[in-house]
Specification:
4 helices, alpha/beta, 5 strands, 2 domains, 110 residues
Length: 110
């Protein structure tokens, strides 16, 4: 089963379409409009095709971070990195994000 964790910067319908038939989408932050859609529309959209959509509020703690570390170390959780920018390229990275081109996370390196 596929599980997608994301910050929710695209319409909920886009995530629904991207999921495998039994996939799960869990939003852990994001813009207000997307968070509201996940809360109010997630259950309704989840009833279609076995896909599950929702939102989680959490306060990180050591146990949660360790669990995420294990998922990363075992390859069960793979972050999608779209591009890497150097510190001097931050304005360019922000423009790229604002224009809606990013298809994954943007990483700033020192």
């Amino acid at each position: 089963m596929e599980t997608v964790l994301d910050n929710g910067y695209h319409p909920l319908a886009a995530y629904t379409k991207a999921l495998a038939p039994q996939g799960r989408y869990v939003m852990v932050g994001g813009a207000g409009k997307q968070m509201a859609a996940a809360v109010f529309m997630g259950r309704w959209r989840s009833e279609k095709g076995g896909r599950k959509l929702g939102r989680v509020d959490m306060k990180p703690n050591q146990a949660d971070l360790q669990f995420l570390r294990e998922l990363l170390d075992t390859g069960k959780l793979v972050p999608v990195i779209d591009r890497r920018y150097g510190l001097a390229q931050v304005p360019e990275a922000i423009r790229y994000l604002e224009e809606g081109h990013a298809r994954g996370k943007i990483v700033i390196t020192a």
